């Protein structure tokens, strides 16, 4: 892409990072930044396990931060709310375990290459502003 691109959730491990680096070299491209959104695991578990989705219109709710008026039904269409399998606490814990083993080592990998920008994702509004400032700084 002439204007650049953003990967979300990739690479997930060192092997993928090495392959991406090789591919970039072949195309004379490079990575400007790697954003690492840092948030405590208990906060991730709390946010995700309290997410509910409408079966009819797919509207998302969070029982703590953006609750529906009725716990069982969507405010917009009256559809039934449910918890996705991926949002169940045990599933989240398993995913975080895999993340710790496979993806956390990438933090050091990109830190050593001076590409890593750690973003405090616990403060959502500040996270956006931080990213915006970094990206605007690229074009100065």
Overall description:
The structure is a single chain. The protein is α+β, with helices and mostly antiparallel strands and 140 residues long. It is built from four helices and five strands, in the order αβαβββαβα. Helix 2 packs across helix 3. It is elongated. Pfam families: ADK, ADK_lid. One of its GO terms (molecular function) is ATP binding. Residues 51-86 form the Adenylate kinase active site lid domain. Keywords: Kinase, Nucleotide-binding, Transferase.
Sequence-ordered SSE layout with sheet pairings:
Elements: H1 14-26, E1 34-38, H2 41-49, E2 51-54, E3 60-62, E4 81-82, H3 89-112, E5 116-120, H4 124-138
Parallel strand pairs: 1-5
Antiparallel strand pairs: 2-3, 2-4
Helix pairs in contact: 2-3
């Amino acid at each position: 892409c002439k204007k650049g691109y953003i990967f979300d959730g990739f690479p997930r491990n060192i092997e993928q990072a090495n392959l991406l680096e090789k591919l970039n070299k072949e195309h004379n491209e490079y990575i400007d930044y790697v954003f690492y959104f840092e948030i405590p695991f208990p906060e991730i578990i709390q946010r995700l396990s309290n997410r509910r989705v409408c079966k009819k219109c797919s509207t998302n709710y969070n029982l703590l931060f953006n609750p529906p008026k009725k716990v069982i039904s969507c405010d917009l269409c009256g559809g039934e709310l449910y918890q996705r399998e991926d949002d169940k606490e045990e599933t989240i814990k398993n995913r975080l375990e895999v993340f710790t083993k496979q993806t956390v080592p990438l933090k050091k990998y990109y830190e050593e290459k001076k590409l890593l920008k750690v973003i405090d994702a616990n403060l959502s509004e500040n996270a956006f502003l931080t990213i915006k400032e970094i990206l605007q700084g690229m074009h100065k």
